[in-house]
Amino acid sequence: MALATASTAGFCGSSQAVLQGSLQLSGSSSGRLSMAKANRMPLSARQGLTVRAQQQSLADTEMTSRRAMLGLVAAGIASGSLVQTVLAESKAPLVGTPVALSGVQRPVKIAGIPGSISESAMSKQLIRAAIKIAATIPGLEVEYIDIDSLPVFNIDLVKDGRYPPVVETFMKHVRAADGILFASPEYNYSVSAPLKNAIDWASMETSVLGDKTAAIVSTGWDLGGSRSQYHLRQIGIRPDIYFINKPELFINVTPPVLDDKGNITDTNIEKEFRDLLVSLQKFTIRLRPCA
């Protein structure tokens, strides 16, 4: 039975890597693949049939891509051959990768959402600290997202499909981001009410949180807010938020790790925070073709 590996411009992740390489049909060449003259490709002098799948332009329709790939599968089945994926033979960029026309990758933009509305809250200070750290990481930007003025979630506030202006502004900023950094304080072994409220509003439209990457820095009195962090991961399932798995960052509120200017005084925690942001950046770049 033939094994076929194929991809279209609409697919993402590892399957999309097929577009960067070639497809090789090995074994018997008795099977024939009929293609229009414009799409015919040269045969290899070696035993078997070699078909190189050239990356299609964005103007090609998805139906054309599907038919081409189905043709490869049919040829493989007819000849009893094995379709193998050969990667890294082409240096052309993958469809959907975050490379601008100039060839320069655009920055990863992260929405920093604190979990408290208190002005002196540690979660707010950590988001501001993340902004400073991100400034030292090439290609990464963190924006502070204010949730202080969000009303308590109430569907009655949605009139004719429109949200309160403050909610519209909040959703606009989160939607424009590539990923999210949550600073989650632990309240009674769970996430804070303001943070859950913000997520409830944002989840009203799939375009706001859907397919967003995310990382968490949690704070608490004993276990560094670990219980709130795992509750937050569970909450993110429904709106399709993709959290990084590692590293995990838990910070105890005592002893203090921030000075009066909001700088992290513990060098180990500062390094862990930086590693967290770098991991989020890399994960976001990997998932961008899916967006």
Automatic annotation (TrEMBL):
Residues 108-251 form the NADPH-dependent FMN reductase-like domain. InterPro entries: Flavoprotein-like_sf, FMN_Rdtase-like_dom, NAD(P)H-dep_reductase. It catalyses: a quinone + NADH + H(+) = a quinol + NAD(+); a quinone + NADPH + H(+) = a quinol + NADP(+). This is NAD(P)H dehydrogenase (quinone). Coiled coil: none annotated. SUPFAM superfamilies: Flavoproteins (SSF52218). Its EC number is 1.6.5.2. Pfam families: FMN_red. PANTHER family: CHROMATE REDUCTASE (PTHR30543), NAD(P)H-DEPENDENT FMN REDUCTASE LOT6 (PTHR30543:SF21). One of its GO terms (cellular component) is cytosol. It is an enzyme of class 1 (oxidoreductase). One of its GO terms (molecular function) is FMN binding. The lineage of its organism: Eukaryota, Viridiplantae, Streptophyta, Embryophyta, Tracheophyta. GO terms for biological process: photosynthesis.
